[in-house]
Design a protein that fits this description.
The complex is a heterodimer of chains A (about 250) and B (about 325). Chain A is α/β, with parallel strands linked by helices and about 250 residues long. Chain A is built from 6 helices and 15 strands. Helix content of chain A is about 30%, strand content about 30%. Chain B is built from 7 helices and 18 strands. In chain B, the strands form 4 sheets. Chain B has a 7-stranded parallel beta sheet, sandwiched between helices.
């Protein structure tokens, strides 16, 4: 089985979010970049397939050279090859087109992407990629089993979950549940050393016009100070929730 | 030309989020000086949609579409959009809408903006405001394509009434076997339980509760309020509560009217996930808990004393105001 895992290079979850250039650019100053958490769950599940059922695992990212350390980390976790499409990621459609171009040539059986990146939260790359590849698609996937050509997946729905079956080739929009938090791997020294020798292919992009443009950013208005209520005066709390906040 | 809105329903009943996106579509239609067409799947009476400004309803009735199927639904909506000459499609941000929207975007060659929180800033150029960086920022996105898809965040716009005719029309898409290559074999959904996606109020608890055996009071409070229950990441990681309840950056986002956080310190990743909620009440015994800085109301004290007491008082309040 050939697996491709799409890796988004995103600010660490604890990052302070700021903007520069008149609020048009994300301020990367002092920001640590990591593998997008939703992608990391997918990568770890891919490693499981590799070790338990035999599979090759490639990782791919669309971005400039600054994203290579994130791809190297994926190699250190255990991926076999890395591919970087040498162009900045501009919108979900452009990224999906670049990924589809590589995925099509690579004849992958399974493509795993996170359900969304934690920076732009577009939530569109996995679905668009599936549509472009004319492959089956399961979003918000929290469990995946593969038996020959047949996949059984569980996807999270509002208020529960649903089991679905589909044939390969398949694209997954993954999230926590594909593996548990405790299954995530921290690369060890041997992994890091080996990752240095593994291939990282730089592929030139195809021509794609973007469909959407992020023009500017805005930070939420800071909220007023919290109103503290005495634990012995919960009636006041209920009154505030009722008359002031109007939520009960 | 009309604005097309995907109206979700469950057992023939329209979802509240769908009435909200219908209201939103109404105002977009006004901006563009056109009408609103809704599309429903396996519903009977659609007259209620008149109240939310839907002019025409395309009713799809097909046994094969009884279970949600992203590909088949996306194909159906695509055909409806083409028939109506639609330039703007509006969907909610339910799990199902988020599943089908990117497929629809490729089929319609449409630019898609998700997590939209207000009416378009302008129609030409077409610019919408959306959340990004998991609610830590907003982002103004310009959509360049002729056809556009907007995914509107829950509770961002509200349900607004506006009279229209909701003229019903049957619509039969032509579907192929390829539309049904992902098949649902089992649905596991708690009946009679409010889901985080639908809830007006969410009662959430964290490590401060000390163990899964102490969740009874959380569930009682949620029941009194007609609320959904949720939890913090460590709680779901330790297996105290199911993953589906995990709220935060890598879990579920919560955009509710009232979010009650009990024994949750308020890590930045958790706050990001609940930022879109309108009112936040925090109960925590640590006055230094970072959550108080993000809260509207706070009670400093022992949750094991406060929560049952609050529940009793709320019951009295509910009885009085029923």
């Amino acid at each position: 089985m050939k697996i491709l895992v799409c890796i988004s290079h995103v600010p660490d979850t604890t990052s302070k979010i700021n903007f520069t250039d008149n609020n048009t650019q994300f301020d990367t100053n002092g920001v640590q970049f990591v593998i997008n958490p939703n992608d990391e769950f997918g990568l770890t599940r891919a490693m499981w397939f590799k070790e338990k059922q035999g599979a090759s695992v490639d990782v791919i990212n669309v971005g400039g050279p600054e994203t290579e350390p994130t791809l190297r980390k994926a190699l250190a976790i255990g991926a076999d090859n890395a591919i970087r499409v040498n162009t900045p990621a501009k919108d979900g459609f452009q990224v999906a087109k670049q990924l589809a171009n590589v995925a099509k040539n690579g004849a992958y059986d399974l493509v795993i992407a996170g359900r969304e990146s934690i920076d732009y939260n577009g939530g569109m790359v996995p679905g668009m990629l599936a549509a472009l590849l004319q492959a089956n698609f399961v979003n918000t996937c929290i469990n995946l089993e593969i038996e020959g050509e047949n996949a059984t997946a569980i996807r999270e729905i509002d208020g529960g979950k649903e089991t679905v079956t589909a044939k390969l080739p398949l694209v997954i929009g993954g999230q926590k549940g594909l593996v548990e938090e405790s299954d995530l791997r921290i690369p060890n020294m041997r992994g890091i050393m080996m990752a240095r020798k593994k291939p990282l292919y730089v592929v030139e992009p195809i021509e794609v016009a973007v469909q959407t443009e992020a023009e500017k950013f805005e930070k939420p208005v800071p909220r007023g100070a919290v109103k503290l209520i005495d634990p012995d005066n919960l009636d006041e709390l209920i009154e505030l929730l009722h008359s002031e906040a109007k939520v009960i | 030309m009309s604005v097309l809105v995907y109206i979700e329903s469950e057992e023939g009943k329209f979802k509240k989020a769908s009435l909200e996106v219908a209201s939103y579509a109404r105002e977009v239609a006004q901006m563009l000086q056109t009408t609103v067409t809704g599309i429903t799947f396996n519903t009977d009476d659609v007259s209620e949609l008149a109240t939310y400004g839907v002019d025409k309803v395309l009713k799809v009735n097909n046994e094969k579409l009884k279970n949600f199927n992203a590909e088949a639904y996306a194909d159906t909506i695509k055909q409806a959009a083409e028939k109506e000459g639609t330039k703007v499609v509006v969907v909610s941000q339910s799990a199902n809408s988020k599943y089908l929207a990117p497929l629809l975007a490729v089929h319609l060659n449409a630019g898609y903006a998700s997590n939209v929180v207000s009416l378009p800033e302008s129609a030409s150029p077409f610019v919408v405001k959306r959340t990004a960086f998991t609610n830590k920022a907003f982002n103004f996105t310009k959509i360049d394509t002729d056809v556009k898809i907007l995914g509107v965040s829950k509770n961002a716009f509200g349900v607004k009434e506006s009279q229209a005719s909701a003229t019903a029309e049957d619509f039969s898409p032509s579907l192929t076997s390829e539309d049904f290559s992902v098949n649902v074999t089992n649905v596991d959904k708690a009946k009679d339980k409010v889901t985080i996606a639908d809830a007006e109020i969410v009662v959430s608890a964290g490590r401060g509760l000390k163990g899964p055996e102490n969740w009874g009071m959380i569930e009682d409070l949620a029941e009194t309020l007609g609320a959904a229950t949720a939890c913090s990441k460590p709680v779901s990681d330790m297996g105290w509560r199911p993953h589906g309840e995990h709220v935060g950056q890598t879990g579920k986002p919560v955009a509710t009217n009232l979010y009650i956080a009990i024994g949750i310190s308020g890590a930045i990743q958790h706050l990001a996930g609940i930022n879109s909620s309108k009112v936040k009440l925090v109960i925590n015994n640590d006055p230094e808990a970072p959550f108080f800085k993000a809260a509207d109301y706070g009670v400093v004290g022992d949750a094991f004393e406060i929560v049952p007491k609050l529940n009793e008082k709320l019951k009295e309040f509910k009885a009085k105001n029923a």
